[in-house]
From TrEMBL:
SUPFAM superfamilies: Lysozyme-like (SSF53955). The lineage of its organism: Bacteria, Pseudomonadati, Pseudomonadota, Betaproteobacteria, Burkholderiales. Keywords: Membrane, Transmembrane, Transmembrane helix. The chain crosses the membrane at residues 27-47. This is Lytic transglycosylase domain-containing protein. Residues 146-226 form the Transglycosylase SLT domain. It comes from Limnobacter profundi.
Length: 286
């Protein structure tokens, strides 16, 4: 009898424990369903309300974070400890020993020198077009003029390719493996990255990505004899045949960027002439 009571008691405790576990599972499941409903509702609201979506994704705090990340990469402040936390380096062919997004060799952009009037107008135009903070775009514009001069490629062509390829997102990635501002394929152009910084490179490094992209378009333009044909090669039409209108899109954007530069320069020239005229008038009256 005592033995029976003992077994009954133990079985009773097991039943209570099982009931408790089931209750906990039901509670967790209920919370999960409620959370899923709330998330789905929030997503639905964002998808149906363009104005709210714009306010959320292009709000000042979000853009500030984006600008800070680009600034860190552009000025080299991330050189000491930034690591690629996913397997991008392995999948894209980046050397396994390379962990810094910004090798020391590519960590300096002189931001002390003010942009020209034309460059400021370009920055303003691109920031509005791609809904990216002007501070972030300014870093990329500075970089394009630096790289363009050194790699002998028009800076506005570089900026146009960046716009079409990544919409000014330095962390952009495509399903086929293209990475960064100019959507360079690390597996295909590993030799160019290695030539820039042997054993220590990343396709997400803005300057390295832009340098390799500039080298590619310069090489393709030389091979084909024109920028238009070089752009067809850049987008892979040399292999696939169909360029999807890519050269026209890039060159149309380049034309708009060139116009923005000219507009900025023209306004600055008028302002300078007005200042000179005012000084001359003041001098004659004195």
């Amino acid at each position: 009898m005592k033995q029976y009571e003992t077994v009954l008691s133990v079985n009773g405790q097991q039943v209570q424990s099982q009931n408790l576990l089931q209750s906990l599972k039901h509670a967790v499941t209920g919370l999960g369903v409620a959370t899923s409903v709330l998330v789905a509702g929030a997503v639905a609201i964002l998808l149906s309300n363009a104005e709210l979506r714009s306010q959320v994704f292009f709000s000042a705090p979000v853009q500030a974070i984006f600008a800070t990340e680009i600034d860190l990469l552009s000025t080299g402040l991330a050189a000491g400890g930034a690591e690629v936390v996913n397997n991008t380096s392995k999948a894209s062919g980046t050397p396994s020993g390379s962990k810094n997004l910004m090798p020391v060799k590519f960590n300096s952009i002189d931001s002390s020198k003010p942009l020209t009037a034309g460059q400021r107008q370009i920055t303003s135009y691109l920031a509005k077009r791609y809904s990216v903070s002007p501070e972030a775009v300014e870093s990329i514009v500075r970089l394009a003029y630096k790289v363009g001069k050194e790699e002998k490629v028009e800076p506005t062509l570089i900026l146009a390719i960046v716009g079409i390829e990544s919409s000014y997102n330095p962390f952009a990635a495509s399903p086929v493996g293209a990475r960064g501002l100019m959507q360079v394929m690390p597996k295909i152009h590993k030799d160019k990255f290695e030539a820039l910084s042997p054993g220590d490179w990343s396709p997400l490094n803005p300057e390295m990505n832009m340098r390799v992209g500039a080298k590619i378009i310069r090489e393709y333009t030389r091979r084909t004899g024109s920028v238009h044909a070089g752009l067809r090669w850049y987008v892979g039409a040399a292999i696939h045949g169909n360029d999807g209108g890519y050269p026209g899109k890039v060159l149309a954007l380049k034309s708009r960027i060139d116009s923005a530069y000219q507009q900025g320069s023209l306004v600055a020239s008028r302002e300078n002439n007005q200042k000179v005229s005012a000084v001359s008038v003041a001098g004659s009256e004195g």
